[in-house]
Amino acid sequence: MKLWTCFSPVCISLLLLAGCAAETAEETPGQAAAPEEAAARLEARIADGAETGELLLAGEDGRLYALSVRETPVTLDGSEAAGTDLRDGMRVTVCHSGSIQETYPARFGAVSALEAESGGTEDRCGLYLRVLEDLWNTDSGLNDGITQMGMDLSQVTDLTQGEKAAVIWRFGENRGLAPIQGTFDELAEAGYIDREHLVWKDGVLFTLSGSAEEGFDAEKWRSGTGAYFFTNCIAKAEDSGAWDYAVGAEAVS
Prior knowledge:
It is built from four helices and 16 strands. By secondary structure, it is α+β, with helices and mostly antiparallel strands. Helix 2 (124-137) packs parallel to helix 3 (161-175). It is globular and about 55 Å long.
């Protein structure tokens, strides 16, 4: 009896601890221990590259990102999917470690998953890239021999900063040129454009303004007597999220 009286509080405490541990395990079945640092999540839109799996992402933070999804787990609308199921213009969430490589476009240190949504797919970047491509191929003599290319999308009202950056980067990459962002006045101030003689000897300035819904203009300019314009352009979105457009009028300077 004396032994029981002496050790019973210890025994009771051990039993209570065991019971609490068992009860806790029952409350959280199958849950893993919380990681020391939660994974980061980045909201973005696929600006280009869905067909190849080498994505150009316009981040909602205004930054431009590049991501290969060839070995990245992908879900689409909550279900397991493949990179080939992605489409330009889709909204995505990149689940990553939080480490960002300071390249341009920026790259993620480690990506654990890509979550995509089909709802709200809207490929405005694809629309403006097509317009710029068409403008490049029209009166192509204006482009001959250029080693520099200016881009001014400051007056486009239906693209985010990240989407503008994506259009500028991809168009320049397709041409093998590093785009120089700026308005006519800014590029003249920087010494690229000869304001006195109204000429850019080594380059061409591409300018877009307006919006898909309300109409937009596109222009490439090399000199006061060397420019081409698409004006009063109208665009229409298809069910797939892609856009088509028509030029209202064309003009030459």
